[in-house]
Design a protein that fits this description.
Blueprint (H helix, E strand, L loop, with lengths): L6 H4 L3 H7 L1 E2 L1 H8 L3 H10 L6 E2 L6 E4 H10 L9
Antiparallel strand pairs: 1-3, 2-3
């Protein structure tokens, strides 16, 4: 029998995380079009969006508000008068 649930519904806690605005690294990677390992590299270099780490860093989450703020900082103004 084929599973017809959306992929996000299959991830434990997905509905609750969505309600409070938390993204898993895999979700953010898909959204940004980068690899999960790129996010890990950014965390190690202290660049990219702010993140939440559980004690010991076993779990990593990205708050939607932090991702949105980081994206705003990435905007490169163009010369619209030209």
């Amino acid at each position: 029998m084929e599973n017809t649930e959306p992929a996000s519904a299959q991830v434990p806690g997905a509905e609750l995380r969505a309600r409070v605005g938390l993204l898993l690294p895999s979700e953010l990677a898909a959204l940004l079009g980068v690899e999960v390992r790129t996010l890990a590299s950014w965390r190690g270099r202290k660049v990219g969006p702010d993140y939440v780490a559980s004690e010991g860093g076993a779990r990593i989450y990205y708050r939607l508000q932090d991702v949105e703020a980081w994206l705003e900082m990435q905007v490169v103004p163009t010369d619209r008068a030209a």
